[in-house]
């Protein structure tokens, strides 16, 4: 996977595979902002990433827990933890309180954030954005941009 490119997937499985391929490119300390409507594939992609990097199952959706931390038993290229975060139901001020900046400052961590636009004011300039677009029932356009 190239960190500045557009991909098209034809199934949830293809999106999962793409998420797995990102594990080969990513460096510790990265904030990954996943933009896209409900059902666009953000969690599906993240689960492929978690599987690819060897995170321990079960993979849960953070929609209700806000943040789910995965500690890797074996570090992968300096990455020891993944924070999977969903800001859909969160107010910006609460998001600061629960520790968003600390997760982003973890030099051995990766933060994967769904619904980043809900906390736009808190996003550091240095981040990778992935934009998911539903083209049809099973087709998704996935655009990756690193800043
Ligand atoms: N090409 C595809 N890529 C990803 N998901 C797909 C694709 N085709 C169909 N789907 C379906 O679309 C849905 C994507 O759901 P997912 O939970 O990943 O979305 P999300 O972006 O995380 O939504 P939310 O904002 O509600 O968290 C799943 O039901 C999946 O099976
Ligand atoms: Mg989701």
Set down the secondary structure blueprint.
Layout: E1 5-9, H1 12-22, E2 31-35, H2 42-53, E3 67-76, E4 79-86, H3 92-97, H4 100-105, E5 109-114, E6 128-134, E7 140-146
Parallel strand pairs: 2-5, 2-6, 4-5
Antiparallel strand pairs: 1-7, 3-4, 6-7
Helix pairs in contact: 1-2
The structure holds adenosine-5'-triphosphate and magnesium ion.
Adenosine-5'-triphosphate binds near residues 9, 38, 139 and 140.
Question: Features of this protein?
Answer:
7 strands, 4 helices, binds magnesium ion, Rossmann fold, binds adenosine-5'-triphosphate
Which structural category do the helix and sheet elements fall into?
alpha/beta
Biggest pleated sheet: 7 strands, mixed
N-to-C CA distance: 16 Å
Named CATH topology = Rossmann fold
Q: Estimate nothing, just give the exact number of structural domains.
A: 1
Shape estimate: globular
SSE arrangement, N to C: EHEHEEHHEEE
CATH architecture: 3-Layer(aba) Sandwich
Low-confidence stretches: none
Level of helix content?
Answer: 10-25%
Total number of beta strands = 7
CATH superfamily: P-loop containing nucleotide triphosphate hydrolases
Strand order of the largest sheet: 1-7-6-2-5-4-3
* Hetero compounds: adenosine-5'-triphosphate, magnesium ion
Beta-strand fraction estimate: 25-35%
């Amino acid at each position: 996977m190239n960190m500045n490119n557009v991909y098209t997937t034809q199934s949830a499985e293809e999106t999962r595979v793409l998420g797995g391929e990102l594990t080969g490119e990513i460096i510790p300390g990265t904030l990954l902002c996943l933009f896209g409507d409900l059902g666009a594939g953000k969690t599906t992609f993240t689960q492929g990433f978690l599987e690819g990097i060897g995170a321990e199952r079960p993979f849960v959706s953070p929609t209700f827990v806000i943040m789910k931390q995965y500690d890797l038993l074996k570090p992968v290229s300096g990455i020891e933890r993944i924070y999977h975060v969903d800001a859909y139901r969160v107010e910006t001020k609460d998001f600061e309180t629960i520790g968003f900046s600390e997760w982003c400052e973890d030099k051995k961590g990766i933060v994967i954030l769904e619904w980043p636009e809900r906390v736009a004011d808190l996003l550091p300039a240095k981040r990778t954005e992935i934009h998911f677009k539903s083209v049809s029932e099973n087709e998704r356009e996935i655009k990756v941009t690193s800043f």
